[in-house]
Write a structure and sequence with these properties.
- Keywords: Manganese, Metal-binding, NAD, Oxidoreductase.
- Its EC number is 1.1.1.83, 1.1.1.93, 4.1.1.73.
- Belongs to the isocitrate and isopropylmalate dehydrogenases family.
- This protein is an alpha/beta fold and 355 residues long.
- It is built from 11 helices and 12 strands.
- The radius of gyration is 20 Å and the shape is globular.
- The model has no long low-confidence stretch (mean pLDDT 96).
- Bound molecules: adenosine-5'-triphosphate and magnesium ion.
- The site of magnesium ion has 2 residues, from loops.
Length: 355
Amino acid sequence: MKKYSVAAIPGDGIGNEVVPEGQKVMEAAARLGGFSFDWTHYDWSCERFAKTGAMMPEDGLDQIRNKDAIYLGAVGFPGVPDHVSLWGLLIPIRRGFHQYVNLRPVKLLKGIESPLKGREAGSIDFYVVRENNEGEYSSIGGRLYDGSPDELVMQQSIFTRRGCDRVMRYAFELAKTRKKHVTSATKSNGISHTMPYWDERFAAISTEYPGFKTDQFHIDILTAHFVRNPDWFDVVVASNLFGDILSDLGPAVVGSIGIAAGANINPEKDYPSMFEPVHGSAPDIAGKGLADPIGQIWSGAMMLRHLGEEAAARAVEDAIADVLARGEALTPDLGGKANTRELADAITAALPAHF
Ligand code: ATP
Ligand code: MG
């Protein structure tokens, strides 16, 4: 029997409530799918930072380097600045393990009230593929003439051929399993070096995929289309900054932040990939059993798919859709009265029917 070794990092706040529920659903999927998990728990978090001055131990990456996957909840704590959790945990893992794809599904499910009126379930179904390792989020730059009227600040963006090509190929490979339509986010009318280069690489990679539909939009109008015409898209590929914006906007237009899933993927599988919901630690509801576990569970479905357990991945996604459509056992963010465990249990109970 196949056994997957997974690092579970619940993190802070509701991460501690949704990760254990996600693990239970993964266990149930494994039993039905004929494989198993070997979990190792890590207390890496802002809470750990407050006690020890570090989010994770110095050899943290080495401790999890050989895992098959990382199942992360959320990191963040009131009073601990965001850059601590970002640079102390998320970015070292994303960059250290070459997780150069950040993947987020945008799918309107029955039973979810979208802020967009008149949209049918199933009419919005696409993925945002964000470049996750380079681009606008480089730390190269600096400040000159500090405090003087001539003060100036510069920040460099880094776009490499390798970096562009590999994330674009990932988008095309994903589209191959779907509607074969890839949309590129650009801003080559305003950004005169990096974005024309991005467009150039998109055109070059497109030629490797004959028969695919491709298009590109400037980021400003693209955000408008996400709201007005979200049914246009299949796979949207974007640089780090533009992808960051689109991958928050996408899930927002299809409903609750509590159900949005995400993955940081190393497609070559030479290092583990990391699966984490879009939401944060939600300190306002932490410890009350109110957290919606669907984002965490859906991220787990993405983990199953990455591990090669497609049937199990699909069963978990279908079980989520099933429970939402029936409108039973929903948490308060979805208009129900159930708690975190009750919603996760309902998804587990729905699983066998979808295998
Ligand atoms: P962090 O600093 O960790 O990013 P945050 O407060 O900035 O936390 P979120 O944790 O994403 O951001 O919370 C935004 C809002 O959405 C909060 O009101 C929170 O309660 C709500 N929320 C987030 N996740 C969930 C969830 N899984 N279930 C229900 N409500 C949620
Ligand atoms: Mg936040």
